[in-house]
Write a structure and sequence with these properties.
The chain is of the alpha/beta class. It has helices at 5-29, 34-43, 74-82, 97-109, 123-130, 145-156, and strands at 63-68, 87-94, 116-119, 135-138, 160-163. Strand 1 (63-68), helix 3 and strand 2 (87-94) form a beta-alpha-beta unit. The N and C termini lie far apart (60 Å).
Length: 175
């Protein structure tokens, strides 16, 4: 039997209708009661204990930054950060030494202070341990094991983190 578009659309419509009719039955089994909904609404009226919106960190005259990952997006981060007044790029790290050198060349060509270069498998650890950094900008691709390790290592060493993509985590005791 040769499939055709009309038969496919008919079957899709019948299947979608059956699912739509069956979904409310499944939803009602776990639906909260009126009493539970009212209790949840009343909980929102309690006073807030703490709010971070009024918090202001102490001013830092010069923010010392270390950048990890200088392959595809890291050089762009170096370029962007070098334009911000009050930012000093103190350390550059990549698995490949040539990438750290290329980013270093960009800084020196621009007349900025030379950053310390780190490379190799554990170059990022060495950078975090040795450098006095205010911010570590991690530009490695994707959510990698390296990013998780860097994040945990930074938290232990009380450094601020910035990932090139959003990474939402809730680790007990750190937030």
């Amino acid at each position: 039997m040769k499939p055709n578009r009309r038969k496919f659309l008919q079957q899709l419509a019948i299947g979608s209708g059956a699912v739509a009719i069956g979904l409310p039955t499944f939803a009602n089994e776990n639906a909260p009661s009126d009493h539970e909904l009212a209790a949840a609404l009343n909980q929102g009226n309690s006073s807030q204990r703490f709010n971070m919106s009024g918090y202001a960190a102490p001013k830092i005259d010069k923010v010392r930054v270390g950048i990890i990952g200088l392959g595809m997006r890291g050089p762009g981060a170096v370029s962007r950060l070098s334009h911000i007044e009050g930012v000093e790029i103190k350390a550059l790290c990549d698995k490949l030494p040539a990438r750290a050198s290329a980013a270093q060349k960009y800084l020196t060509d621009k007349g900025l202070t030379k950053a310390k270069e780190y490379s190799g498998e554990d170059g990022w650890k060495e950078m975090i341990e040795k450098e006095d950094l205010d911010l570590v900008y991690i530009c490695t691709p994707g959510i990698t094991i390296l990013q998780w390790l860097c994040m945990l290592w930074n938290m232990e060493n009380t450094r601020q983190l910035r990932f090139r993509q959003h990474l939402l985590l809730k680790i007990a005791g750190n937030w």
